């Protein structure tokens, strides 16, 4: 059981495309709220893929409720159990020590191997009896006024009251929702990332400390930062290095990483970093292009029977440390909004999901950019000259982000959000962290933090004004 209250059947059928952190969370939470769920995942089998991923206390709050704490207990031995993040200047001196949040925000954070954490989520969903269909690639989406559906590669068709595209950065669902293909662009940065066991590090006096216990160290330099962690008592080690990369990306965004390329960037840094890189098995390294998307104008289809969530709706930079957590919050909010709306008002539930999530999510996304920029563009010559300069490099721990209870918040604000949507009210409402998706200010249309002249040549605005906004404005 997800939480002490397993709700009776709501009669709402939900098809979820993608079994990543966003899709699986949406499935578990919808199941708990009494909705009938089918998850469609393209992968033919569950594999332990990826490397390090972080789930903040706002995600920990969700996980703690699953199985009366059983999932949280399963995660503890395989996640990071360190005391502080020690930040260094690129050449070695310690800039600042940020204590881990512990239970300061009421729930634990879980940082560990993406594949290992994901396996716990996946198994829990299976134990809950959720229908997860692997080897089920969705190739087509459609919607009608009272239902929506998908077509699988096999030709099989499925329909439901609502279809959720939790299909990641290369989302197909997004095309249907937007009415055009929104291509990602390079963020100007890429990240080398890796995960390996610490035997070789233990033999080197410079890197031995990583193998002795759980640790977390970071190094910041001009346009580059390097974060390294050891966990499981020092048995496993992971590091990531974000660096400038101006290459354009097309479809593929992940390539094999090369040690020699990393050393071209950090070869004259703190000898600890250099040794760590040299002891890394190259076969475990990837060079991951950090794609960027401007905030999408909408996450829901015209008829509000299809929505997107997680990376499909909002890719995050790693420095926000919130990509998976925000995908999880999406799943919770959608499940609760559908629950509050009820079977007869499914589109209202979907619209409320978007309104409740959009601005909060954008705020978390922007944090990734500001943290990256403060680390990459610091005044490195004067960094150590004052306590204030040093503390400014701390990883931010904003209470608005970490104290948030996505379930409680949605159930609390739904009636007011629903009233606004039904009455066509747009733009002025701010309920908790929720504001409207679009608003009109000084003769301009404002989407997130971007504004457009009206009329404008932008296809985006045309789509919005024609298809969605006219009535509401
Ligand atoms: C294999 C993999 C490894 C990753 N490794 C890391 C990592 O090491 N560190 C990190 O920070 N982040 C990693 N990520 C990204 C991270 O999981 C997400 O940024 C975040 O958790 C948000 O999750 P999501 O559910 O929105 O998207 P994702 O985790 O990307 O999940 C999307 C899911 O949708 C499925 N899918 C896509 N298209 C279709 C389709 N047409 N039909 C059916 N299913 C489809 C995909 O197979 C995937 O399982 C990884 C993602 C993947 C898929």
UniProtKB/TrEMBL annotation:
Protein name as catalogued: FAD/NADP-binding domain-containing protein
Origin superkingdom: Eukaryota
Any Pfam family matching the protein: FAD_binding_3
Domain FAD-binding positions: 13-361
GO terms of molecular function: FAD binding; monooxygenase activity
Organism in which the protein naturally occurs: Dacryopinax primogenitus (strain DJM 731)
Keywords attached to this entry: FAD, Flavoprotein, Monooxygenase, Oxidoreductase
Coiled-coil stretches: none
Homology family: Belongs to the paxM FAD-dependent monooxygenase family.
InterPro entries from the UniProt entry: FAD-bd (IPR002938), FAD-dep_Monooxygenase_BioMet (IPR050493), FAD/NAD-bd_sf (IPR036188)
């Amino acid at each position: 059981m997800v939480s002490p209250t397993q709700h009776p059947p709501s009669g709402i059928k939900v098809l979820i495309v993608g079994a990543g952190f966003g899709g699986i969370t949406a499935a578990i939470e919808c199941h708990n709220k009494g909705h009938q769920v089918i998850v469609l995942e393209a992968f033919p089998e569950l594999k332990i893929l990826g490397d390090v991923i972080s789930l903040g206390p706002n995600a920990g709050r969700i996980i703690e409720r699953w199985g009366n704490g059983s999932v949280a207990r399963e995660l503890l031995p395989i996640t990071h159990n360190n005391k502080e993040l020690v930040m260094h200047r690129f050449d070695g001196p310690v800039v600042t020590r940020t204590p881990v949040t512990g239970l300061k925000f009421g729930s634990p954070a879980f940082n560990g191997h993406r594949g290992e954490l994901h396996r716990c989520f996946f198994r829990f969903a299976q134990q809950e009896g959720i229908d997860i269909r692997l080897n089920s690639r969705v190739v087509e989406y459609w919607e009608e006024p009272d239902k929506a559906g998908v077509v699988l590669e096999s030709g099989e068709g499925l329909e439901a009251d609502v279809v959720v595209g939790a299909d990641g950065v290369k989302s197909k669902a997004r095309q249907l929702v937007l009415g055009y293909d929104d291509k990602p662009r390079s963020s100007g940065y890429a990240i080398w990332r890796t995960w390996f066991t610490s035997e070789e590090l233990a033999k080197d006096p410079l890197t031995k400390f990583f193998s002795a216990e759980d640790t977390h160290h970071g190094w910041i330099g001009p346009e580059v930062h390097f974060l390294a962690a050891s966990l499981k008592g020092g048995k496993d080690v992971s590091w990531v290095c974000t660096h400038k990369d101006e290459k354009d990306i097309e479809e593929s965004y992940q390539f094999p990483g090369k040690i020699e390329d990393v050393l071209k960037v950090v070869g004259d840094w703190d000898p600890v970093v250099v040794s760590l890189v040299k002891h890394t098995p190259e076969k475990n390294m990837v060079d991951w292009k950090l794609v960027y998307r401007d905030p999408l104008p909408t996450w829901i289809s015209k008829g509000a029977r299809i929505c997107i969530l997680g990376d499909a709706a909002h890719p995050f930079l790693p420095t926000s440390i919130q990509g998976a957590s925000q995908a999880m919050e999406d799943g919770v909010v959608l499940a609760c909004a559908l629950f509050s709306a009820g079977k007869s008002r499914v589109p209202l539930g979907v619209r409320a999901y978007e309104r409740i999530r959009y601005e909060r999510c954008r705020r978390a996304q922007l944090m990734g950019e500001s943290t990256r920029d403060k680390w990459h563009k610091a005044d490195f010559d004067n960094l150590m000259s004052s306590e204030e300069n040093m503390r400014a490099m701390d990883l931010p721990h904003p209470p608005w982000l970490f104290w948030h209870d996505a379930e409680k918040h949605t159930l609390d604000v739904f009636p007011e959000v629903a009233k606004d949507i039904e009455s066509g009210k747009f733009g002025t409402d701010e309920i908790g962290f929720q504001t409207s998706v679009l608003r009109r200010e000084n003769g301009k249309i404002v989407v997130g933090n971007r504004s457009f002249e009206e009329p404008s040549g932008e296809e985006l605005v045309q789509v919005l004004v024609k298809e969605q906004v006219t009535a509401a404005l």
